[in-house]
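Morning run. Coffee first, then this:
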Amino acid sequence: MFDKILIANRGEIACRVIKTARKMGIRTVAVYSDADRHALHVEMADEAVHIGPPPANQSYIVIDKIMEAIRQTGAQAVHPGYGFLSENPKFAEALAAANIAFVGPPVGAIEKMGDKITSKKIAQEAGVSTVPGYMGLIEDAEEAVKISNQIGYPVMIKASAGGGGKGMRIAWTDAEAREGFQSSKNEAASSFGDDRIFIEKFVTQPRHIEIQVLADTHGNAVYLHERECSIQRRNQKVVEEAPSPFLDEATRKAMGEQAVALAKAVGYASAGTVEFIVDGDRNFYFLEMNTRLQVEHPVTELITGVDLVEQMIRVAAGEKLPFAQEDLKITGWAIENRLYAEDPYRGFLPSIGRLTRYRPPIEIASGPMAAAGTWHGDAPTGKTAVRNDTGVFEGGEISMYYDPMIAKLCTWGETRDAAIEEMRQALDRFEVEGIGHNLPFLAAVMDHPKFISGDMTTAFIAEEYPEGFEGVELSDDWLKKIAASCAAMHRVAEIRRTRVSGRMDNHERHVGEEWNVALQGTDYTVRIDADHDGSTIALPDGTSHRVEGSWTPGDQLAEMTVDGQPIALKVGKISGGFRIRFRGADLKVHVRTPRQAELARLMPEKLPPDTSKLLLCPMPGLVVKIDVEVGQEVQEGQALCTIEAMKMENILRAEKKSIVTKINAGAGDSLAVDEVIMEFE
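And here it is:
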């Protein structure tokens, strides 16, 4: 076994590999750019080597710099994580030439399967059903349009060396094919240093289901069942689960056996994933094979008890797999939510800045991983589990240079319903401040009827949130429970105020029993009957709620029970009440005396400023190009400019017909959020 491993990556996956290496008694080496000098993975590793400036193409994907770090530290093996150099055959060749073990598949497998064009040809030759498409190289946008017409719209334009949603576009028309080809080509060159593009048929109403495979160098290969990855946005996965709520046992077995056959056909060794698109009749088609560890690997670990990173390391050291196919059972259900540094209220655009508060829920060990001794946490086992893979910490910076994912929150339960409920509770307890983030959106998905039923496709987000995410409207039942909780919290705050003022020893005489609680466009006049254990809150309709909890003024998380049901409210202070965040809703809750409430209803509403004649930069980023000029008439939907942030190009379009009167930015400019790019008549 190796004594020292270098991790050629950053963020949460680098931290994840370090945890397993530490458990195995293996020393670790981190690499870092200027932007990551104080990153969590640098702190966790036994050694760390600086490799250059923040842009990945000047640091993390420069092979010579990684090789120099290996020479400096004497590392015997390299784990590439995912992204960056993980599927670069030249990197694997350089390691082999230096007699350094690559914790990944053989170079030949990377070359055959890592290239999406070649992998499809091999899959076809192996008898695997594939999606119709054009596997040859495409020279320019006009050829892309011609091929798209031959295949038939809609089509998917994809980077050959792509992954993680980068370099992918769906086109429904010639114009979209032309534009999508160029954007995909640009993103592919920027992210992977390879701008080759191919086109395939886009299957409507699909489900994205992938099979985890694991193979050793002794001819053994197994599949560790499937992951459902259909909740996607911009072709990037947001929510994953294992197993799939859609597959039956026969389809699962057929997909698994086909994935293993493909792996064996290319002499695969290590962990890999075979991705399929599955239609409503459970017909499945090969999409691609990722010759690396997947982002969503934790859900597979949670239902099987197998530490995939450990097995990758052992395979790289020449060991045999310790189990056969019949040993791999599915136990319970696991769900993963990806926490992204992006603002769901601004079209999910990237957000950067300092994490002024970062408090994940407490990790709880349970299920197959705890039973197998492969859990990294210290908590006791039970009927549910919570796991959070992260690469950040409170006070740390979210950089514009890298992928916006900052954590992967996973839950496990004995049933799917149990895993979903545990995820709801974990999301409610996850505190993040200082940046825009998608926690509210994730909470909304967990409560969505389509997700709960398991009846979703890759079009889920586009169909259910066609105008974007605008928050959550809570049900009357939840509003009453929150109103009751806030009334009880307000009473505690009032008692604190009387103690601080020192008005009377018997301070509770000065705290009223009747209050008006206003939230989400409605209000309740409630009466509080308090005792030593909590409060009973009577509502106007004759119902009441029993509220108990240990919240004190200043706490930003209120762990309450309402009628015996545990709820967690994120709490902020506003004038005359609280800012409450719960289950995807962001509420201003005002608690007033009945007279104050009467007067508040007479106050005029403050209107937001008019920005309809301005194009504002929706996120921090770099101007790639300006598509219009002063005096030009633009039409609704016309491209105005392109902004690049976190390795993704974002095209900003005109919302209505107008004339450009002023342009305040040019290509190469770095802009802040809400900076004015151009003005209109």
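The CA atoms of residues 149 and 303 lie 43 Å apart. Good start to the day.
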